[in-house]
Each structure stands twice: as C-alpha cells, then as structure tokens.
Amino acid sequence: MMRSILIVAILLSIAAAYYICLPLPSTISEPWKLMFMDSILRGVMHVSFLAHDLGLSRPFDIAKYAASWDEIKGPQSSPAIRVTETSFEGVQAQVFESTAADQEPHLKRGVVYFHGGGWTLGSGKMQTYYLRCWSMAEELNAVVISIEYRLAPEARFPDQYNEAVQASKHILTAEVLSQYSIDPKRVAVSGDSAGANLAAAVAQQPFGR
C-alpha cells in the first residue's frame, strides 16, 4: 500500500513539474514566480474550456469569474493619487490623478491606458492594471485614464476598437482636458497585450488634424 502511494506521489510530482516548468531566458530574475503564475493561468483556462465542452458554461465564463477575484472593489485614493470612476461617451473608465501638481499652475501629462486580456478577459480594476496606472500617475505626475471597453462575447469586434476610439476622442476635447488640467500637447496612449493593439490603433487616428 505504502509503495503504491509513493509511486502515485512521484508520478503526480513529475506531472506537476512538467506542467509548471517552462524554458525561460536566464535573464529572468524570478523564473519560478513567472512559471507558477503561468501554470495557474493555463489551469484556469483548461478548466474553463472543459466546462464549456461539457455544456456547463460559455468558453470564458469560469476564466472571467476567476479574474474577477483580483479586482479592486471601488476606487481607492491616497494623499498622492486621487482615483475616480466616470465615463467618456458612454465608455466606463477609472481616472488616476496625481495630486502633487494640484497647487501648481502648469498642466499635467495625460495617459490613456487600455488593459489586456485578448478583448475577452480582464479589467482595468484588476490589481495588475490598477497598480500600473497608479504608478504611472505617481511617477509621471500625470493623469492616467484607464478605459473599460466591453469584452467578448457580449461585445464583438470592432466594438472594442470603436469604444477605444470613441472614448479617446472625447478625452481629447477641450472640455475634458480642461477638467483634468491635461496638457493637450502631452497626451500619450498606452496598453498591455490586446490593450497595446488598441493603443496602436488609437495613435493612428487623425484627432484634431
């Protein structure tokens, strides 16, 4: 009996190591952390697709539910950063404003940010993206606007693209720039993964030309 348990334990360990281990460049400073996170993400996706194959849910429902665990509940401000929720032309967004320049007369930098997730998962409220926008606002002494474009399957292409352009166009109006004290000559777009795709598309729009 003990021998059987030992064999099963060894096989499970080998399977876990095979699932978790990834070939990574030697320059990665914390490879095990990256491999562990990757295995969790792949595991969630496999469970999500299995549930879909069994007719229990839509393809990404479980993955979306798991991602929601990581979301910040409500805007959380600090003396250095003021966070508010609003919308631009009907598109939801979080605004991160550095308070360091509140007493200074000059205008602030502006960054329009789009989160990643394959246009299917994720939210600007997830800690990864939320803290990234927070850091950008603090380190750049800027106003960072994180756009909550709608996700598939409820929203289908080109809805995400249209909402990104729609919100960005509204943000660049004189009214919004004045409201947040943003310098119209110092506005950038940024994004992660699928959000970078949207940022690149928005950057090519002829706003104000």
List keywords for this structure.
209 residues; alpha/beta; five-stranded mixed beta sheet; 7 helices; 5 strands; 44% helix; 19% strand
Summary of the model, kept short:
The chain has helices at 2-20, 31-53, 61-68, 127-140, 159-171, 174-179, 194-203, and strands at 81-88, 91-98, 108-114, 142-148, 182-191. With 209 residues, it is of the alpha/beta class.
The DSSP helix count reads 7
**Radius of gyration in whole Å, from Cα?**
21 Å
Shape, per Cα inertia axes: elongated
For the report, how would you describe the main beta sheet? 5 strands, mixed
Structural class: alpha/beta
Order of helices and strands: HHHEEEHEHHEH
Strand order of the largest sheet: 1-2-4-3-5
- The chain-level mean pLDDT equals 87
**Percent in strands:** 15-25%
Tell how many strands the DSSP assignment holds.
5
Low-confidence stretches: none
Report the span from N to C terminus: 77 Å
Helix content: 40-55%
Structure description:
Helices cover 44% and strands 19% of the residues. β3, α4 and β4 (142-148) form a beta-alpha-beta unit. The longest helix has 23 residues, at 31-53. The protein has helices at 2-20, 31-53, 61-68, 127-140, 159-171, 174-179, 194-203, and strands at residues 81-88, 91-98, 108-114, 142-148, 182-191. The model has no long low-confidence stretch (mean pLDDT 87). It is built from seven helices and five strands. By secondary structure, the protein is an alpha/beta fold. The protein has a five-stranded mixed sheet. The chain starts with a helix and ends in a 6-residue tail after the last helix.
